[in-house]
Write a structure and sequence with these properties.
- This protein has 419 residues and is mainly alpha-helical.
- It has helices at 6-26, 32-69, 78-106, 118-121, 131-142, 146-152, 155-172, 177-199, 201-214, 219-251, 255-272, 275-289, 294-307, 310-326, 333-349, 357-367, 375-408.
- The protein is globular, with a radius of gyration of 22 Å.
- The chain starts with 5 loop residues before the first helix and ends in an 11-residue tail after the last helix.
């Protein structure tokens, strides 16, 4: 008998977790069944979160090294890839800023406290630093012994070291091809392990939600509705207003012309929640409907499917602040700057497949000392929000292709249009 898809299994696991949590929560305090249920859910949930933490640093390091090093294959397209990276960086920065500002304004989850994270938050300390002290502490913390950083899961230092290694591979060229192949194989190996861990996701999610629901009241889920509304609203603002405005200002292609040519890819992205699975459709729409030259579309779109994740970056920044509100922690400006930076880095490292962003979400939470276990709160709604943010991710790739083509002036007159 054919098993349901992983997404369906995750939804079923979330549903059973909520039901089991309600059942345990209705039992008397001290009941042997209740205590046994809490013990089992703590062990199972802890194993799942531990597995995610286990692969976090190897995935982060190998994905960044491979992503940067692969640019050497396009060294003859200097202006193209520089323009591409600049656009991707600006659009993601705007997306993250939108997420942080909106979440600060509407404060979903504020005034609540989750008892299940009380132990995890005992060691949370907010350092009172001046702006100068913060930047000094932040910058010095970026450059550390790479082996110590890898062993201690110092994600910021790991990111910097990975960038240096990737850049060195670009400069070294063919001399280090064997090392690049080794890192690529290591990345593929880690992704295989991630696939194994995701098979356990329904059980891990069920365990985490069982404990969460059993120890909380129903007001938690009302707060989730507010958070969902905020995320959906700001994602639509970015996808319907910000990105099309950037496109029109630079290329004079109207939003209607763009959406008419891109609709097949956008619908596919919404249905699959996977920018990687949508890639063939995205390339076809970009080349045939939006009339981007093949050499530009063939570089910008695949690279964008790997590193250009506006919707994911926006969501992870908003989610970090939402979790902070839920656990009763107020992140200061310095910590929100870290969230800003890490949300962009995490979205770059997020594989373009459904639900894999939970691995990088752990990185964002840990960067400011928030409990990784809090991803249990987000998982029940993740699939719904994932459809929209993936659509915006794919939209950004196609708009980036049109903008890069205009910037580098490689297209024939009238080639970029909404015909």
């Amino acid at each position: 008998m054919k098993l349901p898809s992983l997404n369906t299994q995750i939804l079923l696991g979330a549903l059973f977790g909520v039901l089991l949590g309600l059942l345990l929560g209705s039992l008397e305090a001290g009941s042997s069944v209740r205590e046994a249920g809490f013990y089992a859910s703590t062990i199972a949930g802890g194993v799942f979160v531990g597995l995610l933490k286990m692969v976090l640093v190897p995935l982060l390091f190998t994905s960044i090294v491979v992503g940067v090093a692969n640019l050497q294959e396009h060294k003859q397209m200097h202006k193209v890839w520089v323009s591409t990276l600049v656009f991707f960086s600006i659009s993601m920065a705007i997306a993250v800023l939108l997420g942080l500002v909106a979440t600060n304004i509407f404060s979903p989850g504020a005034g609540m406290h989750l008892g299940m994270f009380a132990d995890a938050m005992k060691e949370f300390q907010t350092e009172k630093l001046t702006v100068g002290e913060f930047f000094s502490h932040f910058i010095l913390g970026l450059f550390q012994n790479p082996f110590t950083s890898l062993a201690q899961s110092n994600v910021l230092a790991v990111v910097i070291f990975a960038l240096f290694v990737g850049i060195a591979l670009v400069i070294g060229g063919s001399r280090y091809r064997n090392f690049l192949v080794l890192i690529q194989e290591a990345f593929d190996l880690v992704m295989m392990i991630v696939g194994w861990i995701m098979r356990l996701a329904p059980f891990g999610i069920m365990a985490l939600l069982t404990k969460l629901v059993a120890t909380q009241d129903v007001t938690l889920f009302a707060s989730m509705g507010k958070f969902m509304a905020v995320v959906i609203g700001i994602t639509l603002v970015h996808g319907v207003i910000v990105l099309p405005s950037m496109l029109y200002m630079i290329t004079r292609v109207t939003p209607w012309q763009f959406w008419k040519g891109a609709r097949e890819a956008l619908v596919t992205a919404f249905a699959t929640s996977s920018s990687s699975a949508t890639l063939p459709v995205t390339l076809r729409c970009t080349e045939q409907h939006l009339h981007v030259r093949r050499e530009i579309a063939g570089f910008v779109v695949p690279l964008g499917a790997t590193i250009n994740m506006d919707g994911t970056a926006l969501y992870e920044a908003s989610a970090a602040l939402f979790i902070a509100n839920l656990v009763g922690v107020e992140l200061n400006l310095a910590q929100q700057l870290i969230v800003f930076f890490m949300a962009m880095i995490a979205s770059v490292g997020a594989p373009g497949i459904p639900s894999a962003g939970m691995v990088t979400m752990v990185m964002v939470l840990q960067s400011v000392g928030l409990p990784a276990e809090a991803i249990a709160i987000l998982l029940p709604i993740d699939r719904l929000l994932d459809t929209l943010r993936t659509t915006v991710n794919v939209e950004g790739d196609m708009i980036g292709s049109l903008i890069v083509q205009e910037i580098v002036k490689t297209s024939a007159p009238g080639a970029v249009s909404g015909r």
